[in-house]
Structures are given as C-alpha cells and as structure tokens.
Design brief:
Blueprint: E1 2-8, E2 11-16, E3 26-36, H1 38-45, E4 55-56, E5 60-68, E6 80-83, E7 86-87, H2 93-96, E8 107-108, E9 120-124, E10 128-130, H3 136-140, H4 142-155, E11 162-166, H5 170-181, E12 185-190, H6 193-201, E13 207-210, H7 215-222, E14 230-233, H8 238-243, E15 253-256, H9 268-273, E16 277-280, H10 286-297, H11 303-306, E17 309-312, H12 316-323, E18 333-336
Parallel strand pairs: 11-12, 11-14, 12-13, 14-15, 15-16, 17-18
Antiparallel strand pairs: 1-2, 1-4, 3-5, 3-9, 3-18, 5-6, 6-10, 7-8
C-alpha cells in the first residue's frame, strides 16, 4: 500500500508498505478521505509540539471497514466510519473522570504515532464511529468540528450570551456554528476581511470585528458596552492569545483552543478584578463526536462550502506546499483516495 511520510520538516515522501495484519480488537480501514489541518501543516514546517520524525501525518479521517475482529458486534465489513484519533489509556485520573481527551498518556494518530495518509490503517474498534448517515467528506470532518464543539461545551455557554470567537480558521468556524447552536450571540474576530465575510455568510455570525482596527471599541459597541462574557481563541498565535485577555467582560471566561509553543503572560490585577476564568480546551471526546454527527446528519452545517480545496492522494505532495500559502485562501482541504 502507499503511504506519505513526513520524513523531516519540509519533506514528504511517498513509500510502499505492506498492508497491516488484522489485530485483535482492531479493524482495518480503507482510508477514503483525509482532512488537512493546522497540526499537519505545523508538523510539516517543524513547529508542532509533542512531535517526532519521521511520521505519517493525517488524523481527520473517514473510510470503509475492510476487515474486522470477528468478536466485535457494533461494526461490520463495509461500514463507513470516522476515526476518533485520540488513543487514551483508560487508567489515568483524566480517563477515570471521563476526560479521555486529555489523557496523561494520550497518543494521537498522526501526531504521536503514524496516521492516516495511507491507503489502509489499523484502528482500535473502540475508536471507530459508524457514519453511514453522512458523506465521506462530512465523516472526515467530524474531528475538527468536534474540537470546536468541545470548546463550546467547556465554555458552558448560556443562551443570549455574547461570545467572541477569535480566529476564522476551520476550528474557529466550527466553534461559531456550535456556539450559535447553543443560542449565543456570536462575534467573529480575525485580521482577514475575506475570512470575516465568510463567517457572516457561512457561519451566520451576528457581528464581525477586525483585530487590526479598533477591536476594543468595536466590541464595546456590539455588546452594548459590556464586552463578551465568553472569549474563545482558536488562533494558536501568541500575540492574539495574550491580547484576548483584554476582550473579556467582568466575570467572564477565556478559553484557549489554539496551541502555541511559547509562554503566555497576563497582567494579574486585571485578571483578578474581573475574576476571569481561564480554560484550556484540548481535542474532543466521543460525546462531542456524536453531537457533531447528529448536527451534520440534520444538514445544519454546510460542509461543501467549508471544503475549499481538494485533490487526489497521488497529487497531495504537490499541492501541500501550495495550501500553506495565504494566497491559496484555503479554509479546509480534503484528500480523496
């Protein structure tokens, strides 16, 4: 079978490998769709924490079960599946509390171990979600959308709250949709006007703010002088993440979804006078995947428009570098097998 390996930063290589053997408790999945995300791009550029080379990338995945442990009852050959790429230990304190997304010994497919940029992948059956009610495209995108849904759940958004989402990339856009689904008044912030227009059209947000203009004044205006009670930063940008402390109302919450390989500092008196709640949001749980699947099955998210670029598996290495360039205007790229 064919695999694409990130040998070292800025180098991808197509290789031939043997199809893996069927292992007890696992299924062989014929990969059909691979979503390209920021983690893949950061790993390719050498900027991804928790990462070693060489590595087969790819964790936004859907496919067809081609062989399976016969003792497994909830899956069968021919089922279409999405892959939940967060392999957890089940024994640490986080897992025992149901927080499998931040397991102490977590291994993420495509990050800590080889991922789905290959024709066949062996996956524990516990981490396969049957998606016969979705398109292959939608099934592959359950993972990035579930990250957004998890952030919204972490924020415990109440109907009518002003929620600022910073970063109009794929994760931020998902956050906007699910925050709106919870009844929030959603405000999108970015530095790119085209992305902000996309937020209005695709995400149906109530307001947009350009971070390069006068963001605090604009936020005061759209929130009737109160500032957002929930701020969710999905940028992974150090300056944005520091600046986000200035956008929170008194008694508000700040949720970091984006990950930056650096230290973040804030002015403690401002943090305390607002009694700010600071939260991290990492990955997603099975509950988030199931919630997103339910929303997508109802047709409430425009997946075809969310996907702006696509190519074949054979053409991916040639396209990958192009997708990193701002002028390509990629929101979400999909690879087809």
């Amino acid at each position: 079978m064919k695999s694409i390996v990130c040998v070292q930063p800025n180098e991808l290589l197509m290789t031939d490998e043997q199809v893996p053997s069927l292992v007890e408790g696992e299924a062989l999945v014929q990969i059909k769709r691979i979503g390209i995300c920021g983690t893949d791009q950061h790993a390719y550029k050498g900027n991804q924490p928790y990462f070693t080379y060489p590595r087969v990338l790819g964790h936004e995945l859907s496919g067809i079960v081609m062989d399976i442990d016969p003792n497994v009852k909830h899956l069968k050959k021919g089922d279409q599946v999405a892959i939940i790429p967060y392999l957890h230990c089940e024994n640490c304190i986080a897992c025992k509390q149901g927080k499998t997304n931040c397991c102490e010994k977590i291994k993420v497919i495509g990050v800590h171990e080889d991922g789905g940029m290959r024709e066949v992948l062996s996956v524990p059956t516990s981490h396969l979600l049957v998606t016969n009610n979705l398109s292959l495209d939608a099934a592959a995108l359950l993972e990035p959308l579930a990250i957004g849904a998890h952030a919204v759940r972490r924020a415990e958004i109440k109907r009518g709250e002003n929620v600022l989402v910073i970063g109009a990339g794929p994760i931020g856009l998902g956050i906007m949709v699910f925050a709106r689904d919870q009844g929030a008044n959603v405000i999108a912030m970015d530095v790119n006007e085209e992305r902000l227009q996309f937020c209005k059209k695709w995400g149906e947000v109530g307001a947009t703010v350009n971070a390069l203009h006068q963001p605090i004044e604009e936020l005061l205006d759209v929130t009737d002088g109160n500032m957002p009670s929930v701020v969710i930063d999905a940028t992974g940008n150090l300056q944005s993440m520091k600046q986000s402390f200035h956008y929170i109302s008194h008694g508000g919450k700040l949720v970091y979804v984006g990950l930056v390989k650096d230290d973040i500092s804030f002015y403690d008196p401002d943090f305390h006078k607002r009694e700010t709640t600071l939260l991290g949001s990492r990955n997603a749980t099975i509950e988030d995947f199931e919630y997103v699947q339910h929303v997508l099955a109802k047709g409430e998210v425009d997946i075809p428009t969310y996907i702006t670029h696509r190519c074949s598996f054979e053409d991916m290495m040639g396209e990958f570098e192009n997708w990193l360039q701002p002028e390509s205007k990629v929101i979400k790229a999909i690879v087809e097998l």
